[in-house]
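Quick one - inputs below.
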Amino acid sequence: MVLYKYPGALKENGLPISNSLFFQLQKDILQGKLRAGSKLTEQRICEQYEVSRTPVREALRQLEMDGLIENIPNRGAFVIGFTERDIDDMYELRKAYEMQAVRWAIERITDEEMEELEETFEFMEFYTMKKDIEKMLNINIGFHQLIYKASGNRMLRHMLSSYQIYLKNYRLHRIYEDSYLDTVLEEHRMIFEAFKARDTEGAAKAMEKHMNSAIARRMQEKEL
Amino acid sequence: MVLYKYPGALKENGLPISNSLFFQLQKDILQGKLRAGSKLTEQRICEQYEVSRTPVREALRQLEMDGLIENIPNRGAFVIGFTERDIDDMYELRKAYEMQAVRWAIERITDEEMEELEETFEFMEFYTMKKDIEKMLNINIGFHQLIYKASGNRMLRHMLSSYQIYLKNYRLHRIYEDSYLDTVLEEHRMIFEAFKARDTEGAAKAMEKHMNSAIARRMQEKEL
DNA sequence: AGAAATATAATTGTATACAAATATACAATT
DNA sequence: AATTGTATATTTGTATACAATTATATTTCT
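Output:
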């Protein structure tokens, strides 16, 4: 029987409060619940999430390093806004790193990881056929994450994961039509085939195409 | 007259302790004073720097986001080591972003920034002639920082600055001979000329060459 | 009224106390 | 000797109290 636990709703997932707070605030900022330029008062966050200032401050430090807030000593934390151009830029930056990830991954992937990748791709084929968009969203992310992992570079992996989190929250309309699913599958197929053939530059090119396709889709969305 | 101040040697530069601690620990890790895999006990850091746990924990959060330590909940913080390959990789990753920075900078640079860049380059010419290596080290950094700023992307700027900090600490022997100074000047000249001509791809190519030159230099150092 | 000076409140920075989890030491058992 | 269980110590997580700074309100003076 539990005699005492720290209060608050955040203490449910096993993680320390400060970690949960970081994820929660990150979400709040990316989803626009906390507007750009607005000040994050520690006290207000404490009250909102019913926790003390210690974990709040730690979460703020993380957000600062993540580039989501600006911390001015003795003044406070302010939400940093992303302009449309910032988002455009992010797609370009991501592209460069996804291409590099694929290059390294092909050179460094283990047999086990290769099997995982193959399996994941087969799942993609299956759920594309099934037109299961929800499943596809997750498998999609998983496919890329596998490549990050196989790249064997912790930094790269971390940064690309961040881009995924960021950009996921900035997608505008989520046009996921069947035709889109098919296109993405073929783009991934090109990448996967290059992996099997150990064709480094072919894979990089295929990834570039895949990324350009995402950029083009964003442009379309912006026009709507 | 000061009646009371928080104790400790870190409280001299005006920044909060937590910030100073972050920089200090970052340096300690990058310079190898804290070995890879070793555990950072909060208490030990408190004693070493004569501060309380609060700022220490905040600094640790920042180091975690910076990728220098791994924080395992309820277990502690462990120094992450960089392998030689990690460093090699970092040069490649930096190259990709330096090239992108230069592209955007040319498209977005303001007249004022352009003047600053010109001035900086002229200083470089002067101190190269003077063979003043110390000065050159700083101006070198300044030249690149100006480009980051002109790129107009906060994220990119922050990441490239991090690479500079990281890689600076991993240079092995610091071979700065006169011949090297001259080479670097010419590489920078190519970049600067491309800026004046608003030659985006030319500048990217020049930057690529500059980065490849740095990579080659590292290879040389490794062989010694 | 407007500006400067001062007092007050609000907010951030730091230290410390306590809660909870983990690590360690040691005995009991097999 | 190895393993399990338990008590103890250490360490991390969180809350709170106080110091220092900044923001706001008030007063004072011209």
